[in-house]
Amino acid sequence: MSAALARALKLSVVIVIAAICGAITDERSAGSAQASDDSSAQTQEAATGIFHGVGAVTAVDDAKGWLTLDHEAIKGFMCAMEMMYRVEPPRLTAGLRVGDRVAFDIDAGRSAIVAVTVVNSAK
Question: What does pTM read for this prediction?
Answer without folding.
Answer: 0.65
